[in-house]
Every structure is written in C-alpha cells, then in structure tokens.
Design brief:
Strand content: 5-15%
Helix content: 25-40%
Shape: globular
Bound molecules: FE2/S2 (inorganic) cluster
Number of helices: 5
Order of helices and strands: EEHEEEHHHH
Distance between the termini: 43 Å
Amino acid sequence: MKVECRVNGERRVADGVWEGESLLYLLRERLGLFGAKNACEQGECGSCSVYLDGMLVCACLVLAGQAEGREVVTVEGLGRADALHPVQQAFVEAGAVQCGFCTPGLVVATHDLLTRIPNPTEPQIREALAGNVCRCTGYAKIIDAVQLAADRLP
Ligand code: FES
Ligand code: FES
C-alpha cells in the first residue's frame, strides 16, 4: 500500500508498504531517517521515540499505515548538526551521550517533557524518561542534561 504523511515538515510518500510494517521501519528503511533507533521492537526501550500528531509514541509499536495523512516529527526534525536544539546541546554538554544509541529517543522524550512541564523536578524527569533505557550512563548525566536544558529553554 501507499502511505503519505508529513515528516519533519515535508510531505513524504512511500510505496509498497506492507500492512504489518511499523512506522519505525518506514522511517528508517524507506525514508532514510536513521535517528529513531531499532532496539527492542517491543515498546520497551524508547530508542524509537517520535512524535505522531504531537504525541510521543514508540515508532516500533505504530503501524506505518497509521501515519497516513498525519504529522511525524523525529529527532532529525528538532535540530540540525550545525544548529542543535537546546535539548541536544544539553545532552552533549552534560556528558549524557556515551554510545549514543539511546540518545535520539531520550532527546525526543525530553523535548516532550519540557514542552509539558518546563521546570520538572527530578522525580518528574525520572518518571517521564522511565520508558527510555540507557545501558551506558547510569542516568545521572541524563538527569543533569534535562535540568540543563530546562534552565536554558524559555
Ligand atoms: S525499539 Fe521501539 S521501544 Fe524499543
Ligand atoms: S549512551 Fe549508550 S545506551 Fe545510552
């Protein structure tokens, strides 16, 4: 089937989409957007977090066909390599990026948190990011990064 949606503000069309295909597969394998990572494919790790019509979702749990006519924003839509989003910059500066596999999902989830709660407490940060698994950092620097981003964002 054909799926047409807007991704990071651009109209994108994919042909030959399989009915059981995930939004994550569509983004990575058909549209060449490799920011959202493929780890568990079971909604357990958060590495594939994206926005679908402004709602934070695990792209591995959304069917590609469900994106038809809708707006998707991935980590690529938040900032560019030469103009990082303040959340991305904070992750770099706080040392919250080690292997980096979890980082795109954490950046999107943090963006969502700070949109809803501009100055979250540490328990609120931990709760909001509870669905994002990191195997490297021990999370302390991730919390630092979220607090740094919260301090900088208007
Ligand atoms: S790959 Fe989607 S939650 Fe882990
Ligand atoms: S930095 Fe490696 S999994 Fe988080």
